[in-house]
Amino acid sequence: MNRNKGKVLAALLLALLLLPTLVFANGQKEAPAQAQPMEQTAAKYVFVFIGDGMSMTQINSAEIYANALANKDIRIQQLGFTRFPVSGLTTTYDASSFITDSASSGTAIASGNKTLSGVINMDTGKTVAFTTIAELAKQAGYKVGVISNVSLDHATPASFYAKVPSRSNMYDIAVQLTQSGFDYFGGGGFAQPTGKNKDQPDVIGLAKAAGYTYVNDPAAFRALTPAAGKVLAVNATLQDSAAMPYDMDRQSGDLSLADYVAKGIELLDNEDGFFMAVESGKIDWACHANDAAASINDTLAFDRAIAKAVAFYEQHPEDTLIIVTGDHETGGMTLGFAGTKYSTFFDRIGLQKGSFVAFDQQVLKPYKTATSAAAARLADLMPQVEAWFGIKFADLADHEKEQLERAFQRSMGNEVERAVQENTYLMYGGYEPFTVKVIHIMNQYAGIGWTSYSHTGVPVATFALGKGADLFGGYYDNTDIFRKLTAVMRLETLVSRR
What pLDDT does residue 497 have? Predict the structure, then answer.
């Protein structure tokens, strides 16, 4: 492997990374703590897990819910990754806004550079391309895998292999996936497999021509071995926008995010090591729609996926690093709602039987197709609402009944509006009004509030376990994750040549 030690450069880099200063109210700085000597060997196996849209509220809500399922005590049931020995806080602003998107935040994590929202691995002028940590790892001899439960041409997975001026150029992103030479892609499909106008060569065909073994059947997926070579594994069941289903909608026999991580470990494991980037993207999508139950269940599923990496770490504790972080927070999710004051009732979340998408697809859409707006009656759908959410119309307050009726009429009139001036966006966020209103009532009964249908600018938490984990404690920017990874992986010489 080409892993020049670069001892002098490494020492300087580590000195900067490991000597944080504390700023006090009077503006004076405390003397920096003594740096610990850096190990001379590189981390051999590196996992970077990104919970899209996941900050501390999403994590804490999952921990509260996990405990609420077991008892009524005011306690939390910690997730596996929140037990990691090192944790820090990470800022997420980009080059133009304190509130980032997944393209610019993914670029920061993957390449160590700030850019504009919507831009992937290019500078603010959209002319200079950046090299990613995954590409550096590949150059250094690691095998590389990228996994996501949303489409593989989406912003966060793309941040590890693509360079485009706009994240909406999803076909260009997918073509770059086939040209990356990375060893394993798994999870969702492609949002634009034949281009925006459906007139381009199919991406799957391009991947096969580039030497990828393509599978989209659970049995074929489970049968994969390292002899398959480079692998592109697309989930057989795709729910919305070429993404895997929300975990709470996953059916028996369907693959999970944990399955893709476990298979990735099996396929990538080798004497020269591997780098694996894993995104749980539907935490973000759930929070955009203010669906707490879907967000919580996908956060728990994310934890189960991380557990696969932890099991591998336990076999290779001296050589493995696991990082868990978020790219930004989504929805302005809060543990607290004015209507319940200091009380929460997270056990109510367990009454919800499916995500907002599943309810739309299985209940609301068929009803709208079969029923004219003039003939539609809210009473027709209330038995389904009760079955899916445990909400009885008779138990609602008068203002809730009125809000639900208004939202029902808007949905039946196909008024899925985004006009802020009419306050419809503020009420429904561009989603089905009836579904969003039911979800909001459900969340409010649990004691959960939301401020947005978009991202927010709060810092995210970062957790670390294994070789070089101490680097990831403290308060730092998301661009520093790239620099810390290059230090632990001893890629400094390659960085200097970028």
Answer: 64
Residue 294: give the domain boundaries. 45-333+455-496
Calpha distance 471→442 (Å, rounded): 41
Please indicate, yes or no, whether residues 226 and 360 belong to a single structural domain of this protein: no
pLDDT digits (tens, 9 = 90+) for 322-332: 999 999 999 99
**Which pair of tokens denotes residue 483?**
């620099």
Residue where one domain finishes, among candidates 425, 449, 473: 449
Domain count, the chain: 2
**Segment 52-109, tens digit of pLDDT:** 999 999 999 999 999 998 888 889 999 999 999 999 999 999 999 999 999 999 999 9
Query: Are 354 and 406 in the same domain?
Result: yes
Q: Residue 45: what residue type? A: Y
CA distance 145 to 131: 16
Tell me how long the chain is. 498
d(Cα 118, Cα 94) in Å, to the nearest integer? 10
Burial 393-424 (b: 16+ CB within 10 A, else e): beeeeeebeebbeebbebbbeebbeeeeeeeb
- Phi and psi torsions of 221, nearest 5°: -65, -50
Residue type, 477: D
